[in-house]
Design a protein that fits this description.
Elements lengths: L2 H6 L20 H10 L14 H7 L4 H23 L11
Helix pairs in contact: 2-4, 3-4
Length: about 100
Amino acid sequence: KTPLHLACESTCELFKGDRRIPPRGPPSCEVVQTLVKASPLSVPLEDLEGMSALEHAIFSDAPIQVIKLLQHVTRRQCERHQEKHYFDVTPAPQTSA
């Protein structure tokens, strides 16, 4: 999981069984904004469970500002990825027979 996944998952336990750490609340807008700004390419990534930071945020009852930010950045990353591949008209290398 990326730091953004961990920030968006309110049920995350860094040390299993450590009861000294109180349960976490919903994801913090400030923390999520900082992580997104530092690494926007990590926003659409999925963890080993097949979940994105956005999905973790939804399940963790994140504030609507966090959901909208993650939706916006995910949409932008997908658009950029599609544009890159759509406009990639580099011809395949020629092979001599």
